[in-house]
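#onboarding

Welcome to the new folks! Below is a worked example of what a typical request in this channel looks like: someone posts a single protein sequence, and someone else replies with the predicted structure as tokens. Don't worry about understanding the tokens yet, we'll cover that in week two.

Example request:
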Amino acid sequence: MSLLSPKEAVVLMYESVAAGDYDKARSLMHPEYHSHTQPHETSVDAFFKEMDAVKRTMTATRRETILTMEEGAMAVILQRVEGIHKDTGDKIAYRSADFFRIAEDGRIKEHWDAVTFDGSDLFDTIEPN
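Example response:
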């Protein structure tokens, strides 16, 4: 794979996760990936575990990219996600600002985020395995 811009790498990673192509998404992530704001997201495997938990919890999920930006090795994606909690039927909607630092090899290495919920807090209800 040729090196993508930071913004392209992040957008492709989210598109790959949404499409269920975890192999493609994994190829975009550095082996030393970790999140600075999600204490349980300490590795690439932990990231995918969280994505699986979200997918198991929500149905009729829709993700909308609002804005993407990049500056040097940093990329930012603002997005809105909404769906229905499969057990309660409650609408879940959240907006996130996700910041990523891209390693020299072009893969996503670090993550910071800020999440705002509209209604039920999804992360209080999911059960990662």
